[in-house]
Design goal:
- With about 100 residues, the chain is mostly helical.
- The chain has helices at about 5-15, 35-55, 90-100; strands at about 60-65, 75.
- It has a two-stranded antiparallel sheet.
């Protein structure tokens, strides 16, 4: 059985000398397709910003902050991220993705 959360918790904590670790992951979606160049860049950028934030002592969920101008990748405050928001499939980015993968 593969447990990426446990792997990263042990190995990353050791690498950065963390006394405590907490790895949280969402179970809402599992990838159904291979990542493309855009995905890999976004993942790399989020990981790099995550390390910078951790070293600076900033907690949050790494991602593009849609509430900030230019949607920068940053540690988004946990209190701003909550479930229960309905997904709007009419968003331009989602419609564009559907076209790119031949589902629109």
């Amino acid at each position: 059985k593969i447990n990426p959360g446990l792997y990263f918790s042990k190995n990353l904590a050791t690498a950065v000398g963390a006394e405590k670790t907490l790895v949280q992951k969402s179970g809402y979606f599992a990838r159904s397709a291979a990542s493309n160049a855009f995905d890999r860049k976004l993942i790399r950028d989020c990981a790099e910003k995550g390390v910078e934030s951790a070293i600076a002592g900033v907690s949050g969920c790494m991602g593009q902050d849609e509430a900030k101008e230019g949607t920068p990748i940053r540690a988004i405050e946990f209190e701003r991220i909550k479930g229960g928001k309905p997904f709007n499939p009419e968003q331009a980015w989602f419609q564009e993705m559907l076209k790119e993968i031949g589902q629109a």
